[in-house]
């Protein structure tokens, strides 16, 4: 029993060291730390697809964090770092995809649908108002009135 | 005109239905490689068998080949291995990239399960893997004789994948 507890404690200890190993980067200043944070949050882990590389525990995400840190150290700017990853993994790794022919629908589709919806709504409203305002639809012409009277007479007799 | 307008909801429904139906059969874990049509990234790494022997991208030129990223820690690679052995026996050129692996374990694996690789690159730190955009072994690249990456397959190559997808592509490269 005692041995089991010891083993469990050791396991716990190892677990904490492993956890700590993830974030031992030393940044030169606060701005760089901030850049590291935005970059790792904005870039997507290629393996575990619905996580960014800051959150993911996949080995590939660890490698990419390391790589981003290395490039920050080298003094590369954000665009360079993002391009480096896009060159290898494609636009997929960006949670903030660029506007191009492929992503046009993604970027402007919702706005387009909204405009379309408003268009249809205006059309319906305008048409309804026109119907209400036109007096012609409520009154009968002379010939129509005669015909109505005729019909009513016929029914009476 | 009015008739047509009444058909509009049906048309919209059909368009959406087609998209969603297609979506049912897409595999979201399959990323299009950003490297298709580009030459193999430059590298200079030792071979698995001999640390003194340096392999570069130049060494992979000359013949179309499969470049298979594998590791002993990768469970799926074990499933794939016999298939690669069979393909190698049929004369398909296969190069290996031993990705982030323990070299001794890799050597043991190759002697136990047979070695299908002509060149076996030792990528212990995963630098070549990173340049290739590898995100999980096994991954296999098809390169032509100029060393240009023409196709990428993520996952286990089994007989069916080979027959239905890769064999024809490989043959095309051989015939070029």
UniProtKB/TrEMBL annotation, chain A:
Record Gene3D superfamilies: Cytochrome C biogenesis protein (1.10.8.640)
Transmembrane feature ranges: 105-126
Residues of the signal peptide: 1-20
Limits of the CcmH/CycL/Ccl2/NrfF N-terminal domain: 9-152
Alphabetized Pfam families for the sequence: CcmH
Record keywords, A-Z: Cytochrome c-type biogenesis, Heme, Iron, Membrane, Metal-binding, Signal, Transmembrane, Transmembrane helix
Similarity remark: Belongs to the CcmH/CycL/Ccl2/NrfF family.
Protein name per UniProt: Cytochrome c-type biogenesis protein
Organism expressing this protein natively: Pseudomonas songnenensis
From TrEMBL, chain B:
PROSITE patterns recorded: THIOREDOXIN_1, THIOREDOXIN_2
Domain Thioredoxin residues, every copy: 34-175
Keywords: Cytochrome c-type biogenesis, Disulfide bond, Redox-active center
Domain of life assignment: Bacteria
GO molecular function, one term: disulfide oxidoreductase activity
GO CC field: outer membrane-bounded periplasmic space; plasma membrane
Signal peptide range: none
InterPro entries: Periplasmic_diS_OxRdtase_DsbE, Redoxin, Thioredoxin-like_sf, Thioredoxin_CS, Thioredoxin_domain, Thioredoxin_ResA/DsbE_sf
Family: Belongs to the thioredoxin family. DsbE subfamily.
Protein's name according to its UniProt entry: DsbE family thiol:disulfide interchange protein
């Amino acid at each position: 029993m005692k041995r089991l507890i010891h083993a469990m404690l050791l396991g716990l200890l190892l677990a904490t060291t492993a956890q700590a190993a993830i974030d031992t980067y030393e940044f030169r200043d606060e701005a760089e730390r901030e850049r590291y944070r935005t970059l790792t949050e904005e870039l997507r882990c290629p393996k575990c697809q619905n996580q960014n590389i800051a959150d993911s525990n996949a080995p590939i995400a660890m490698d990419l964090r390391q790589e981003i840190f290395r490039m920050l150290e080298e003094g590369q700017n954000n665009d360079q770092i993002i391009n480096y990853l896009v060159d290898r993994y494609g636009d997929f790794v960006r949670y903030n995809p660029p506007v191009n022919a492929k992503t046009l629908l993604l970027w402007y589709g919702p706005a387009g649908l909204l405009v379309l919806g408003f268009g249809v709504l205006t059309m319906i409203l305008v048409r309804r108002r026109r119907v209400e305002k036109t007096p012609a639809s409520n009154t009968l012409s002379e010939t129509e009135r005669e015909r109505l009277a005729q019909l009513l007479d016929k029914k009476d007799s | 005109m009015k008739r047509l307008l009444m058909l509009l909801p049906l048309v919209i429904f059909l368009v959406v239905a087609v998209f969603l139906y297609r979506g049912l059969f897409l595999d979201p874990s399959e990323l299009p490689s950003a490297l298709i049509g580009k030459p193999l990234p430059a590298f200079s790494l030792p071979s698995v068998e001999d640390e003194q022997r340096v392999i570069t991208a130049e060494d992979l030129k000359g013949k179309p080949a499969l470049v298979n990223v594998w590791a002993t820690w990768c469970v799926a690679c074990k499933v794939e291995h016999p298939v690669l052995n069979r393909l190698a026996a049929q004369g398909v050129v296969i190069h290996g990239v031993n990705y982030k692996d323990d070299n001794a374990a890799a050597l043991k694996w190759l002697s136990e399960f047979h070695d299908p690789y002509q060149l076996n690159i030792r990528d212990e730190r995963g630098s070549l893997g990173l340049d290739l955009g590898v995100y999980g072994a096994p991954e296999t690249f098809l390169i032509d004789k100029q060393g240009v990456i023409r196709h990428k397959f993520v996952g286990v190559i089994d007989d069916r994948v080979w027959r239905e997808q890769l064999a024809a592509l490989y043959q095309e490269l051989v015939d070029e």
